[in-house]
């Protein structure tokens, strides 16, 4: 049976659309510990059972209960577990007997020493001194043996405690040592697709400050720092360019033709042209000031190979942008002054351009004078 018609357990969502660090209950780890065999589930603790003897005993008990008779206490063959328990009891009894025998020998030795002391009391003083020395030596030997025995017992206890601790640690490692349940070993510090070009293109992902090493020069950290350093200068230049071209100080809004006189310089139109040329010259000088630092080579070798390559790329891009702005500014100036698009090209010589500008400026001045004369004649009429 197909499951294509059924919805998915967790629908596919974008990386930025995740709700938070919440997890579904079914995604949580269910079994955190490894189960071990308990007593009664097989192993060394559970030996082979005599099922026949147990069945006969249960059957005899049932018949005795139903018929009202007395249960036949027939001797049942001991099972493996009973035999093992009996062996353990016998071993414990033997150990107790050995302990009693050792205690009895120790008491006899002490009484023998006491008897020796009592018998030697009737001898001479020299013999008493020798007996006292022997008793002291024997007492010292007994104390030494006692100390050795206590140390041996303490060492055995420590060894048993160490073995129990090692066994507990081993069981814990077996239970929690499963790599599939240990999430700390599988925490990825960096994804395998962090350095691809077409990634994090959605709006709002540019503000992340995590260091990234991408193979896209337009989204590299160096490019962003460079553009943030010089982009505001380009914006200010564009603002000044638009101010020169469209401000009321130079071009009136209701002017019909582009080559008419400026409203603030009706009597001297050449002054207006001079001021326009001065402002455009200042604009070009600002572009050159921006381009100059990009073309200068630093004498020290502080830049790395990647930094030098990125600097060359940025300098080339900035130079091309400045050249485009220069050409657009010159074209805008010519269109505003003379209403011509083909008077000066980017490839023409500078002397021809200056000569043509002078001729057009004189023609504009003559047209302005004629317009002023015509207006004065109309007023007199």
UniProtKB/TrEMBL annotation:
<protein>
    <recommendedName>
        <fullName>Pre-mRNA-splicing factor cwc15</fullName>
    </recommendedName>
</protein>
<dbReference type="GO" id="GO:0003712">
    <property type="term" value="F:transcription coregulator activity"/>
</dbReference>
<keyword id="KW-0508">mRNA splicing</keyword>
<dbReference type="GO" id="GO:0071013">
    <property type="term" value="C:catalytic step 2 spliceosome"/>
</dbReference>
<dbReference type="GO" id="GO:0045292">
    <property type="term" value="P:mRNA cis splicing, via spliceosome"/>
</dbReference>
<dbReference type="GO" id="GO:0016592">
    <property type="term" value="C:mediator complex"/>
</dbReference>
<feature type="compositionally biased region" description="Acidic residues">
    <location>
        <begin position="89"/>
        <end position="100"/>
    </location>
</feature>
<comment type="similarity">
    <text>Belongs to the CWC15 family.</text>
</comment>
<feature type="region of interest" description="Disordered">
    <location>
        <begin position="1"/>
        <end position="20"/>
    </location>
</feature>
<dbReference type="Pfam" id="PF04889">
    <property type="entry name" value="Cwf_Cwc_15"/>
</dbReference>
<keyword id="KW-0539">Nucleus</keyword>
<keyword id="KW-0805">Transcription regulation</keyword>
<feature type="compositionally biased region" description="Acidic residues">
    <location>
        <begin position="124"/>
        <end position="138"/>
    </location>
</feature>
<keyword id="KW-0804">Transcription</keyword>
<dbReference type="Pfam" id="PF06179">
    <property type="entry name" value="Med22"/>
</dbReference>
<comment type="function">
    <text>Involved in pre-mRNA splicing.</text>
</comment>
<keyword id="KW-0507">mRNA processing</keyword>
<dbReference type="GO" id="GO:0006357">
    <property type="term" value="P:regulation of transcription by RNA polymerase II"/>
</dbReference>
<dbReference type="GO" id="GO:0003723">
    <property type="term" value="F:RNA binding"/>
</dbReference>
<feature type="compositionally biased region" description="Basic and acidic residues">
    <location>
        <begin position="139"/>
        <end position="172"/>
    </location>
</feature>
<feature type="region of interest" description="Disordered">
    <location>
        <begin position="347"/>
        <end position="381"/>
    </location>
</feature>
<dbReference type="InterPro" id="IPR009332">
    <property type="entry name" value="Med22"/>
</dbReference>
<comment type="similarity">
    <text>Belongs to the Mediator complex subunit 22 family.</text>
</comment>
<feature type="region of interest" description="Disordered">
    <location>
        <begin position="64"/>
        <end position="172"/>
    </location>
</feature>
<dbReference type="InterPro" id="IPR006973">
    <property type="entry name" value="Cwf_Cwc_15"/>
</dbReference>
């Amino acid at each position: 049976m197909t499951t294509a018609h059924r919805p998915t357990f967790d629908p596919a969502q974008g990386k930025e659309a995740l709700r938070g660090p919440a997890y579904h209950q079914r995604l949580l780890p269910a079994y955190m510990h490894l189960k071990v065999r308990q007593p009664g589930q097989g192993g060394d603790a559970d030996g082979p059972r005599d099922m026949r003897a147990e069945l006969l005993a249960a059957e005899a008990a049932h018949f005795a209960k139903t018929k009202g008779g007395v249960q036949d206490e027939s001797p049942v063959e001991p099972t493996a577990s009973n035999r093992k328990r009996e062996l353990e009891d016998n071993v414990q009894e033997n150990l107790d007997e050995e302990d009693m025998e050792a205690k009895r020998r120790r008491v006899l030795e002490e009484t023998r020493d006491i008897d020796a002391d009592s018998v030697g009391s009737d001898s001479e003083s020299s013999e008493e001194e020798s007996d006292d020395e022997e008793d002291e030596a024997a007492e010292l030997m007994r104390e030494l043996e006692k100390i050795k025995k206590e140390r041996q017992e303490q060492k055995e206890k420590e060894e048993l405690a160490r073995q129990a601790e090692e066994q507990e640690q081993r069981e814990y490692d077996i239970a929690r040592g499963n790599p599939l349940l240990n999430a700390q070993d599988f925490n990825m510090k960096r994804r395998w697709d962090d350095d691809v070009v077409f990634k994090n293109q959605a709006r709002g992902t540019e503000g992340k400050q995590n260091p990234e090493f991408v193979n896209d020069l337009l989204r590299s950290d160096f490019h962003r720092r460079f553009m943030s350093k010089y982009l505001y200068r380009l914006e200010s230049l564009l603002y000044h360019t638009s101010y020169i071209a469209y401000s009321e100080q130079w071009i009136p809004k209701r002017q019909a033709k582009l080559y008419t006189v400026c409203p603030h310089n009706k009597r001297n139109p050449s002054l207006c042209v001079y001021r326009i040329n001065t402002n455009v010259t200042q604009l070009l000088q600002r572009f050159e000031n921006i381009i100059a630092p990009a073309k200068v080579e630093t004498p020290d070798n502080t830049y790395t190979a990647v930094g030098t390559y990125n600097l060359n790329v940025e300098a080339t891009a900035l130079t091309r942008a400045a050249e485009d702005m220069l050409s657009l500014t010159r074209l805008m100036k010519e269109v505003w002054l003379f209403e011509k698009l083909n008077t000066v090209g980017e490839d023409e010589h500078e002397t021809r351009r200056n000569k043509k500008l002078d001729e057009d400026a004189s023609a504009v001045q003559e047209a302005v004078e004629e317009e002023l004369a015509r207006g004065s004649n109309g007023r007199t009429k």
